[in-house]
Design goal:
Order of helices and strands: HHHHHHHHHHHHHHHH
GO biological process, one term: transmembrane transport
Shape: globular
Distance between the termini: 49 Å
InterPro entries: AI-2E-like
Main location: membrane
Oligomer: single chain
Subcellular location: Membrane
Radius of gyration: 25 Å
Keywords: Membrane, Transmembrane, Transmembrane helix
Low-confidence stretches: 359-366
Structural class: mainly alpha
Length: 366
């Protein structure tokens, strides 16, 4: 009886010894990857943006082909033209009006103290003192420079991103064949193709739906800004469109900035309340009802993971990392779900523990 117990103890000890090198190697690889992402951000950010834009163009060209029955090459040209022209307009507005706003930010800071006093009767002196002590201490010029710097950086990289997109579209059809040839084994090639298909489908759905929802939100908000006569209405509309891609806090920031400008610009608090209550309610309704209804459970990401990914990618790549946090994490989740050794991590990253292929298998069995 004693010998089997010794064998079992030896197996347990060997398993523990094997796990330590694995944990060590995984930690080293993860650390090197994080350092590589940080050090190579100047190269990786334009490439990542180009890949996401390429996914959006493919989704748009496929939709054009299905609706109009035009040739694929013509649909690809139309998709590239529409997406890149839209991105150029967005970055041009940010680059032009944001520069003017950055120059006049000191004027707004000087007038903000008087504007806070206008809402003292609505919210009480204690809250007014808190706002004065905390919001006025915020260096708005620094915030404006950060936003302007990000917009300028994107504008400077626009040509490089466009070049990446052009070559990616040119090799769209040949890329799948090259994967099959590079894999050698047909089974391995099929697995790679399945991973790419899953990533492409999830990203197409996410980027397409978020672009549509953000465009609706930006158009409605822009209408409100123009009716009120808010300064730099185009800039706030573009920021509303862009910030909706940042999970959780993006929609809040999209309301705070124009509301603060309205508080300074107008003598009454009416426009401020319209933006806070009207646009805030719009963001809440879209974020809690329309967004989940259109995206459904296709992403199936844990809410905590979304916040964690937002923090991580913002720390690594700054503001642009915040925009890319969800798409990048979706890619990681899908890749992990197709690797048996990393599948438990993918299950922990998911919302309900069911991965995409599990849901498809259960749907097929029923």
């Amino acid at each position: 009886m004693g010998q089997p117990m010794n064998v079992e103890n030896n197996d347990t000890a060997n398993t523990a010894k094997l796990r330590l090198p694995v944990v060590r190697d995984v930690s080293i690889v993860a650390t090197l990857m994080v350092l590589g992402l940080y050090a190579g951000s100047a190269f990786l950010i334009p490439l990542t943006l180009a890949l996401l834009i390429n996914v959006l163009i493919i989704a748009l060209s496929d939709r054009i082909t299905s609706l109009t029955r035009v040739p694929v090459w013509l649909a690809n040209i139309a998709g590239v033209t529409v997406v890149l022209a839209g991105l150029f307009v967005i970055m041009y507005i940010l680059g032009s009006q944001a520069t003017q706003f950055a120059r006049s930010i000191n004027t707004y800071e000087a007038q903000f103290d008087g504007a806070v006093n206008r809402i003292a009767g609505l919210i009480g002196s204690d809250v007014t003192s808190f706002i004065r002590d905390n919001l006025i201490s915020i260096d708005m010029s620094y915030v404006a420079r950060v936003l302007l710097g990000s917009a300028t950086s994107l504008l400077n990289h626009f040509f490089l991103i466009s070049l990446y997109v052009a070559f990616l579209m040119a090799e769209r059809l040949a890329f799948r064949k090259k994967i099959q040839l590079a894999a050698g084994d047909p089974k391995t090639g099929a697995e790679f193709a399945a991973i790419l298909d899953a990533i492409t489908n999830s990203l197409q759905r996410y980027v397409g739906v978020k672009t549509f929802i953000s465009l609706i939100t930006a158009c409605i908000s822009y209408s409100v800004f123009k009716v009120l006569g808010l300064e730099y209405a185009e800039t706030w509309a573009v920021l509303t469109f862009a910030l909706n891609f940042i999970p959780s806090i993006g929609s809040i920031i999209a309301v705070i900035f124009p509301a603060m400008i309205a508080l300074v610009q107008f003598e009454s608090v009416g426009p401020f309340l319209i933006i806070v209550l009207g646009c805030g309610t719009l963001q809440f309704m879209i974020g809690n009802f329309l967004d989940p209804a259109m995206l459904g459970r296709s992403l199936n990401m844990s809410t905590f993971l979304v916040i964690l990914a937002l923090t991580f990618w913002t720390t690594i790549w700054g503001l642009i990392g915040a925009f890319l946090s969800v798409p990048l994490t979706v890619c990681i989740l899908i890749v992990f779900s197709h690797i048996p050794a990393l599948r438990p991590i993918a299950i922990l990253m998911s919302l309900d523990g069911r991965l995409t292929e599990d849901q498809r298998a259960s749907a097929g069995s029923t």
